[in-house]
Specification:
The chain has about 425 residues and is α/β, with parallel strands linked by helices. The chain has helices spanning about 10-30, 35-50, 215-220, 260-275, 300-310, 345-355, 380-400, 415-434; strands spanning about 10, 60-65, 70, 75-80, 90-95, 100-105, 110-115, 120-130, 130-135, 140-145, 150-155, 160-165, 190-205, 225-235, 235-245, 280-285, 295-300, 335-340, 360-365, 405-410.
């Protein structure tokens, strides 16, 4: 709050004084006592309001209820005002918000009548409709004294708050079996036998087998030691490759149309949550985004929160060029899920590079369905856009012919068939390598 702000007379107070003075002058000059009767209410109100003029400057405290929300969720902007001399009658607040923030009341204006006990508050509900970080506040606070004669206004930049909106996770239920990769830890069954908990078979004893694995019943019947073998347990390493080189389409928030980046961010959050809840290690690599470029693989709810926060900070950087190199930490045991609208040549090159290195790759097409670009001022805009889509379809066909799985994101069940195929091919490669 700025202590330099003082109570200032309003235009209504000045008009009341002018009207009272005018009636008094007319009454004296024209010798009209009745004009004094008309001047009395104006003069009385002006004098009473002047006597009730506040002297102490109120103290305003502004805060936001939650600094992190999900798309579509709401929080409250709290405004509390302290008026020590109890001479403040009304207080009004106006909260201006950026795009993709709804207010209740819709205009963002709240007016309340204060009480003499002080410490009164105002609440404005704000609802975020799109992921990202946005600055909110401060609200413009206006207090008025009796009869609206004096007004005090303040807007302090110290009350500004940052609201982080995490992407609303799209519904996703991967019913297909996961892609098995080599490993010795985790909660998933490996296609190779090793130290684990799930029974595989009974085989002859070999040097290095644990004594607790000896199957005594079979050993007594066969006359030689036999042990129970198990399937090895492993954890999955999933790498989410997010294409943020450009944003195609129009974004209207959670309640309207979705751009390609909206679909990409929400689908990445859904896939990340699915695999993190399954106990797998999930990493994230940004392609062409400002800010954080890579999140190391980990698991757990804290890591999921970190992934969602990074997704909420995505900013397209179309001017940057992608070098096409493999992301760090991507090896033979990783499954890469690339989320992209597939409109940039750099995205296509990156997918081909990953496939050439024999990495299990799944490309999720995040281009909005039925996307058109029509400009009434340019009759050729629609034709140009159709040509671009035809070129894109040709490149997608080439990717599929090269063995790269490409599937459009449509929510539940979008990846089931492709993940089942990747499971089959991964098992075939492991059998051939034995």
């Amino acid at each position: 709050m700025s202590t330099a702000d003082q109570w200032r007379p309003t235009a209504a107070h000045a008009r009341a004084l002018v009207v009272a003075l005018a009636f008094a002058v007319i009454a004296v000059v024209a010798r009209r006592p009745d004009m004094l009767v008309l001047a009395t209410p104006f003069a009385g109100a002006a004098v009473w309001a002047t006597l009730r003029r506040p002297h102490a400057v109120p103290t305003v405290h502004q805060s936001i209820g939650h600094r992190t929300v999900r798309e579509g969720d709401a929080t409250t902007w709290h405004i509390r005002i302290d008026h020590p001399d109890a001479r403040v009658d009304d207080v009004a607040a106006l909260l201006e918000v950026p795009d993709f923030i709804d207010r209740r009341p819709v205009e963002g204006q709240v007016v309340v009548a204060l009480h003499e006990d002080g410490d009164d508050g105002l609440d404005i509900v704000v609802r975020s409709t799109r992921w990202g970080r946005r600055r909110i506040g401060p609200a413009l606070v206006v207090a008025s004294s009796a009869w609206g004669a004096f007004r005090w206004t303040t807007r302090s930049g110290a009350h500004e708050a940052s609201l982080l909106t995490l992407p609303q996770i799209s519904p996703f239920d991967a019913a297909a079996p996961p892609v098995h990769v080599p490993g010795l830890i985790g909660v998933n069954r490996s296609p190779r036998q090793g130290s684990g908990n799930e029974f595989a078979s009974i085989r002859p004893f070999q040097p290095g087998d644990r004594l607790r694995r000896i199957h005594w019943a079979r050993s007594l019947r066969a006359g030689t030691l036999h042990v129970s073998s198990t399937w090895a347990d492993h954890d999955r390493h999933v790498v989410l490759l997010v294409d943020a080189l450009e944003d195609v389409g129009e974004s209207e928030g959670i309640d309207g149309l979705a751009s390609s980046l909206d679909i990409t961010v929400r689908a990445a959050g859904a896939i990340a949550e699915h695999y993190v809840h399954a106990g797998d290690r999930v990493a994230m690599v940004m392609m062409g985004s400002l800010g954080i470029q890579r999140v190391a693989p980990a698991s757990g709810h804290r890591h999921l929160r970190r992934l969602l926060e990074v997704l909420a900070e995505v900013q397209p950087a179309g001017a940057r060029r992608d070098d096409g190199r493999l992301p760090r930490g991507v090896g033979d045991g990783a499954m890469v899920v690339m989320l992209s609208p597939l409109m940039s040549p750099a995205s296509l090159r990156r997918a081909v590079t990953l496939a050439d290195h024999g990495i299990s790759l799944l490309v999720v097409d995040c281009l909005p369905p039925d996307l058109t670009r029509r400009d009434p001022r340019d009759p050729y805009a629609d034709i140009t856009w159709r040509i671009e889509l035809l070129k894109r379809d040709r490149e997608i066909r080439r990717m599929r012919e090269a063995g790269i799985a490409v599937v459009p994101w449509r929510g539940p069940g979008s990846l089931d068939v492709v993940l089942r195929d990747l499971q089959h091919h991964a098992g075939s490669r492991l059998r051939r390598s034995r």
